[in-house]
Amino acid sequence: MTNPIETLRAAxxxxxxxxxxxxxxxxxxxxxLAVTIYGGPDPADIVASELVDGAVVHRQTGRRxxxxxxxxxxxxxxxxxxxxxxxxxxxxxxxxxxxxxGGGPDxxxxxxxxxxxxxxxxxxxxxxxxxxxxxxxxxERPAVVSSPPSREKEE
Length: 155
Fold this sequence. Notes:
Layout: H1 4-10, E1 13-17, H2 23-30, E2 34-38, E3 46-52, E4 55-60, E5 70-73, H3 80-90, E6 94-97, H4 109-118, E7 122-124, H5 129-137
Parallel strand pairs: 1-2, 1-5, 5-6, 6-7
Antiparallel strand pairs: 2-3, 3-4
């Protein structure tokens, strides 16, 4: 079984593909990770989350990163093919999925796990990533003040 704390501790760059609450990218940023947010389908919706003078700020980049260690997703199962393609392009080692908020049983968890692991990627869906990020924020990890540059041309 995957240790979520060690999984996040080993990451340096996280791509957040949608999120149910702003605390998710912000807590990852405060934990010292480079964070790129896909806030929508357009290049204008791609932003970097950065720590500036102790405050989290979101800066529009309009460019997808070249690589990442972890892909956080809050998307429906119907989008898994595109998500796996993006994960492959980024070279991620882990997909951390946020199930629908509501606390009920997750009918898609097994399908997600099967597909992600079949692609050779580690799958995590619990605990919530922002809870783990808050634990890491108390570590001695230096904060990232800017995202890694992207050399990829806009699509």
